[in-house]
Amino acid sequence: MDHRDQEQKHEEHRDREYAEVKRLAQEGGPTAGLLDYAQVVFGLERFDEESAAVAIVTRVAGEHPDDPRAALLFSHSALHIQLDEDAVLRGGELVARIPRESVYRPLAAVHLAAVNEWNGVDRSDRDLTFRLITESVERAPELTSNNAWLGRLHAERGEPAKARRYLERARANILGAPERAALSLVERAWHECFTGRLASPVGIETDLAKLR
After folding, report:
1. 93-123 pLDDT, tens per residue?
2. What gap in Å lies between CA 147 and CA 151, rounded to an integer?
3. Euclidean distance between CA atoms 49 and 59, whole angstroms
4. I need a labelling partner for 207 at 20 to 30 A (CA). Which of 1, 34, 135, 152 fits?
5. From CA 108, how far away is CA 145, in angstroms rounded?
6. What are the DSSP calls for the chain, one per residue?
């Protein structure tokens, strides 16, 4: 099987996965299935279905305000799709409910930092952002997005050695081809939305080059 055949087979498999995720959501299944659908729509940027997915996470987050994945997906939609200040603030309220001992707390901290900077870096509490991102990295050093953010914050503070440390870790945390191939569609969407582990290393390498 040549490369084109492999790509086509992979795309067909993803299409089947997506159809199944969407079917389960349309049948009004459990909350997890609804969130899987929204997650895939957001992560794969299926723009024609974003409004439906936003409506789902808004409803689920309203009905289950202590569900951490619903809170994170609502906050993601507020920050990247709805782009509405009231929604962003509501997302911040929801993710703030995620307990500190929760495995979702590192991502909640990143979202709280993003809410803090919603109206512009110059109008945000920079110390709060630094504390939140540091907390996220300490709790989840295996992620890319939080390490990259912390590296840039250290660069802004004139601390190139620390900046390099976190930027290099962020780059090392990006998943390789075999790891990517093993991901389900829902898992892939999770990484696309929250962890940064499927990102291109180009931006990180540019930031590293500025430290030289």
Report:
1. 999 999 999 999 999 999 999 999 998 988 8
2. 6
3. 16
4. 135
5. 13
6. --HHHHHHHHHHHHHHHHHHHHHHHHTT--HHHHHHHHHHHHHTT-GGGHHHHHHHHHHHHHH-TT-HHHHHHHHHHIIIII--HHHHHHHHHHHHTS-TTSTTHHHHHHHHHHHHTTT-GGGS-HHHHHHHHHHHHHH-TT-SHHHHHHHHHHHHTT-HHHHHHHHHHHHHTS--HHHHHT--HHHHHHIIIII-TTS-SHHHHHHHHHT-
